[in-house]
Amino acid sequence: MNDNQNPPQLISFHGLPALQLRCADGAQAVITLHGGHLVSWIPAAGGERLYLSETSAFDGRQAIRGGVPVIFPQFGPTGPLPRHGFARTSAWKLEGIRQEKEFALATLTLDDDETTRQIWPHAFHLELSVGIGGDRLDMELEVENPGAHAFSFTSALHTYLRVAEVENILLEGLNGTLYQDQTKGNKLVRDTGVALTVEGEVDRIYQDAPPTLLLRDPGRPLGVHSEGFTDTVVWNPWEDKCAALKDMPARDFRHMLCIEAGCIATPILLEPGASWFGRQTLMELRNS
Ligand code: TA6
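That is the input. Now the predicted structure with 6-O-phosphono-beta-D-tagatofuranose docked in place:
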């Protein structure tokens, strides 16, 4: 039954075809087909929770800066593929929408084609589900291997969170976890702080990270939970690296923090016919 007063809409988002999900309780999301990219999430309590750069490219070729880029099949620059793989710059297909009174769910898919096979010679099927309702966002990525040969991949949901002032946040839950410090040539360091604070560039891949984190953004605490993804990336480019990004205003490093759910340190090996899934859930905690 669809008793929602606000059925999903196909819209144009900065000129890109996109899907707008709206729940009766006020929760909303926008997903572009380019990249299968969640560009906006507003929980029922109100207020955008994702950072999206106002100077991002929206040309249907380059990756969007902000929101939740889907990283597959290669995280970062390590490997033969374009940085962070090709899923974030590919055209995804809208597979289905379920819209009920209290939640809305969209499913998008991406399959190998001639272009992907030229740079990555594997058959694959990706399914991204984005579900919203109340104060919660669930993003699930499933990877299937429909081909005759095994392949391995790294992946992430590269979530850009909007924060009021990054120097005022505390990120709790990573204490005691080992991370690769990407600002120091991937040196392996153990996190010893009670909470992570950001006072300079942070680019860390936490390995086998705890599944549940708490982002304390004053007045707007957010729960971050992952499943299937073993690693957590925390990234803020800070002043100099942000200024060097042509698709992000120079001061915006102050208003974003990436908390990414990833499988990076140990690539996933998928045998023919096998599948894998990972999920990241964000939970607005203002009302709890
Ligand atoms: O996830 C962190 C990271 O790999 C950083 O090293 C940083 O450069 C960022 O992703 C953004 O990458 P991009 O290719 O989107 O500029």
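Residues 63, 76, 83-84, 158, 182, 203, 233, 235, 258, 260 surround 6-O-phosphono-beta-D-tagatofuranose (CB under 6 Å).
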